[in-house]
Amino acid sequence: MKISISIGGYAGVDTAGTVDFVRQAEKLGVDCVWTAEAWGQDAVTALAYLAPQTSRIKLGTGIMQISARVPSMTAMTALSLNALSGGRFVLGLGASGPQVVEGLHGVDYTAPLSRLKETVDIVRLAFKGEKLAYQGRYHELPRPGGEGKALRLDHKPADIPIFLATLGPKSLEYTGAAADGWLGTSFSPDHAEAHLAYLRQGAEGVGRTLDDIELHATCSIGIGDNVEELIDARRPGVAFSMGAMGSATTNFYNDAFQRAGFADDARAIQQLWLAGKRREAAARVPDEMITRFGAIGTPEMVRERFRRYRQAGIDSLTLRLDGDTAARIAVLEQVMDLLRDLD
User: Fold this and answer.
1) How many CA atoms lie within 13 A of 34 on its CB side?
2) CA atoms within a 13 Å half-sphere pointing along the CA-CB vector of 111
3) Which domains does the chain possess?
4) What distance lies between CA 304 and its chain's CA centroid?
5) Which residues, including other chains, have CB under 8 Å from residue 25's CB and lie 6 or more apart?
6) 280-320: per-residue pLDDT in tens?
7) Is pLDDT above 90 for 9?
C-alpha cells in the first residue's frame, strides 16, 4: 500500500515549511503529493513551484474544480504541469459543491456529473493530441455560430492519469467506469461498500474490475498513547465536514457518512452546525465517526487500521497530518516505519 500526502487548504501558507515537508516525504518514499483547492489556494500554483524542487514524487491536483476552468484550460494546465515535472503529473478533478461553485465562481451547479463527464471527454481529446471538437449538453467546441474553429493544443500527446474525487452513488459509478483512479474521502474500511459497491458496479458495467482503478482514500492520522485526546482533537473537523462542507440540502460528505451507518449522527451534527451551535456540533460527534474513518491511537492500533484499509482494497492512503512542519514529518516517519512492519 502506497502513501500520499496533501498540502494546501484553508490556513495560511508556510511556503518554506511546505517545501521542506514535501522534500522529506519524497526522501521517505511517499508516492504522491496532492494539492487542495477550495476557496483559498488553487491546486495548480503550488505544484508548479514544487516541480523543480523535487525529482521523483508524483504531483497531483486534489482537486481542480471543474467549474473554475473551462475544459480546454484544464487540459492545457495539465499538459503544462506534466511537461514541467518530467511526466510526474496526475490530474485530479472534482465537481465541488453548490456553495463554492455558485457562490464563489458564479457558475450554475446544475447537473454536476454531466459537466464532469464532458470535462473528462474534452480533456482526454486534448491528451491524445486531437482537435477539440465536441458537442455536449454543457460544452460545445467550437462555439456554434461564431468564428472559432476546432484547435489542437500545442503539446505532444501525453498519458496523464485522471483521478476523480466523487462521493455520490452515480458519480462513483462513473468513476468506476471511466477513471484511472479514485480520490476517496469520508471513507471507512469498516464500511467500505458504502463507496466500493458503486465503484464496482460502474467498473463491471464496462467490463472492468476494481483492479483497473487505483483507489486512494484520505486517512486522518494521530499516533500516541492518549487516545481520547487524539479523538477529541478531531471532533471539530468532522463537525465542519458534516455541517459546512455543503449547503443544508447538498452535502456529499454528510451523505457518505449516512450511507456508512451514521445517518442519525450526521443529520444531528449538521442541524447543530447550521443553527450556529458549532461547539455543540463538535461534542455531538461520536468516537466511531473518527476512529472508523482514519488511523487514530497507539502505534499498534494505527498499524491495525492500515491492515484494515489494505484488506478493504485501498491502494494508497492520503494522509491528513496535523501540526507544524516538524511534527508532520515526525508522524510521517512513524507511518512509513509502521507500514514496513505490516505483514
Assistant:
1) 28
2) 9
3) 2-228+295-340 (3.20.20.30)
4) 23
5) 5, 33, 57, 329, 332
6) 999 999 999 999 999 999 999 999 999 999 999 999 999 99
7) no
